[in-house]
Every structure is written in structure tokens, then in C-alpha cells.
Amino acid sequence: MNVLRSLFCFVTLGTVSTLLGCGGSSPTNPEATLPQPQSMVIRTFDFIASPSEYTETDVIAMSLKGEKHDLLKNQYSRHIGYSKTVQFRDTDDLVNLLNIELISRNEQQVLANTQIELVDKARYWVFSLGNTDTDDYQLYARHQPNVQPVDGKVPVFILDLDVHKHIGKTAVHIGQQSPPIDISSHGDFKQINMSKDLMNFDLTVNYSDTTTLDCTVWTPEKDSVWNDSAWVVFIVNEQCHLRHVDQ
């Protein structure tokens, strides 16, 4: 009798997993076993020096298991910064990294690459840098700065993307009377709290090799836009670019 009962359970287990006495388990939802997606916002800038006014490269993000997202594809306006929310499911508890690749649009060749850590709800900036005349390219990625609101002030951050061209310390002066601010590190941003009444401000960048860069940064024409936002100044290709932090 026991043999017959065991045989009956063996035959029917594949179709009735909940049959009492056969040791079956309750049905499971395949979706429930999938890992929760990790979601990040990645904002990509093209600062490649080129005679052309249009971008000639694309940027992609790819997990180590092959899941892919286009970060900057078929965009032709330069220097703006395009944001995209990306989600990845096939993450590994031991290796949570994303490969970021800069690809030539025509030849589909990888020109540069870097890696960023996959952290849920993180916000990254990715910069395409280099020069089309020399075929020298690089990708640089970093976390978006955390803004600390200050009453009556406008938060401003400065990021020198030309720092790789110079050896040693880099300092910036805002106006003629300000103390020097060390921006030679690609570490944490330093928040500078500026007046809401500014139409423009002057930056003087002093590199340790005695090179000096002077530029004037103009604030938006509408006071409300300048006053209600946090901003970042990118120094790249010996020019200054003012951009909204969250835009």
C-alpha cells in the first residue's frame, strides 16, 4: 500500500504540487524571485573639443552581465547635459559596477571607458572629455554634489575638468578679494554660497605650473532662476560653463 501511495505521489507531483502527503510546495511567482531593480539618475555631458558644433559620440552604460542603457545617443547639442534614469536588475552582491563606454557614432569603436558603483537612488554626472584632433578621449564620472541650502544665498560648486592637464594644486579666486579655494582634487565638491544679487562673477584659476585662466560667469537673466537654484561651474577646455545642478 505504501508503495502504491508513493507511486501515486510521484506521478501527480508535477501537476498538483499542493497534494497533501506528497511533500509538494506551494506555487511561487517567478517575478517574486527577481531582485529589485537598482535605479539611478545619470546625467551625461559632452565636453569633447571639436571643430564641429555637434556631438560625434554616444555614451552607454552596461552591467557586468550585459544589461545595457543608452545614456547619450544621437544627441547633437553639446555641453547641455542630458539626464536619464536607468534601472538594472542583474546585479551581483559582490560586484555592483557599471561599465560606462564612450563610442564613436560612425565607427562604433570604444574610445574610452570608466566604471561607476551601482548604488540605488544615486545621482551621477558623466563627462566625455578629449579632443577630436588628437583622438585623445576619456570619461570622467562622479556623484552629483549634495546641496546644503543657506538662507539668502545661492549655492555654487566649481569643478575643474582640466585638472588632469596640470600637476599639483589648483586654486580658484572668485573676484579679486576672495581667498583662494583649492579645487585640485576630484574629491568632494566645495559649496560656495554666493549673493542673490549677482549679474556675473569673475573666476581666476591658478595652476601650480603658473598657468592662469580668467573667465567671467554670467548668471541667468531672470533673477528668480538664479535665486531659486543651485549651480555648478565646469572649467573645461579653458572655458567656464554654468549649469543648473539638478537640471
Descriptive overview:
The relative contact order is 0.13. The protein has 2 domains: 35-144, Immunoglobulin-like (Sandwich), CATH 2.60.40; 148-247, Immunoglobulin-like (Sandwich). The longest helix is centred in the N-terminal third of the chain and has 11 residues, at 2-12. It has 2 helices and 16 strands. It has a 4-stranded mixed beta sheet, with no helix packed on it. Strands 3-2-5-6 form a 4-stranded antiparallel beta sheet, with no helix packed on it. Helices cover 6% and strands 45% of the residues. The chain has helices at residues 2-12, 223-227, and strands at residues 38-49, 57-63, 68-72, 82-88, 97-104, 110-117, 123-131, 136-143, 153-160, 170-174, 181-182, 192-195, 200-207, 212-218, 231-236, 239-244. The chain is mainly beta and 247 residues long. It is globular and about 50 Å long. The N and C termini lie far apart (74 Å).
Secondary structure topology:
Blueprint: H1 2-12, E1 38-49, E2 57-63, E3 68-72, E4 82-88, E5 97-104, E6 110-117, E7 123-131, E8 136-143, E9 153-160, E10 170-174, E11 181-182, E12 192-195, E13 200-207, E14 212-218, H2 223-227, E15 231-236, E16 239-244
Parallel strand pairs: 1-7, 9-15
Antiparallel strand pairs: 1-4, 2-3, 2-5, 5-6, 7-8, 9-12, 10-11, 10-13, 13-14, 15-16
Radius of gyration: 26 Å
Return the CATH architecture of the largest domain: Sandwich
Q: Output the strand order for the largest sheet.
A: 4-1-7-8
Structurally, the number of domains stands at 2
User: Span between N and C termini?
Assistant: 74 Å
Any idea of the CATH topology of the largest domain?
A: Immunoglobulin-like
Q: What structural class is derived from the secondary structure elements? A: mainly beta
